[in-house]
Design brief:
Elements lengths: L2 H8 L6 H11 L4 E4 H6 L9 E6 L4 H8 L4 E4 L3 E5 L6 E5 L12 E5 L2 E5 L2 H13 L5 H17 L17
Parallel strand pairs: 2-5
Antiparallel strand pairs: 1-2, 3-4, 4-5, 6-7
Helix pairs in contact: 5-6
Length: 173
Amino acid sequence: MTKKEFINLISNGHEDVIGIFLKLLDDNGIDYCIIGGLGVNAYVEPVVSLDIDIVIVADAIERLIMKAENYFKIERFPHSINLNSPGSDLRIQVQSDQRYQKFISRSTIKDVMGYDMKVAAIEDILTGKIWAFLDKERRKSKRQKDLADIFRIIEQFPELKKLIPDSMGYIEF
């Protein structure tokens, strides 16, 4: 079984949602980078996630939404725009927080679950995970997953421990 077949199997994928989405970005010249848990998976031993967190260049968000309406159900939230397909349990979450925009220029192509994707630099992924963990409005279960991802990154890249803010000092890394 290939990585693509695996991700589509666990997501009840009746269609290749990741492939469709990446083609939509490519066909429309929209620059992006993967962040979140899938981004972590590009650098450390992967864990299963049904979320695809992505940052796209800010001035292309509305253009993407118009193009994506033919393939996905669109839901807008305060800090993200979610795209869902009836053909898969995968959730694509387009991050609209402007802090993430600078991640795009530092991203590189990586093989993630059998797909060539632009992935944020590991330092940027760690920074995003720290922001998410420190966000008290997020559900505790999400924040715990963010903390686990932070630990996964630090275990693989101990030199990045210096990026952990003092406000997280009570946690032993």
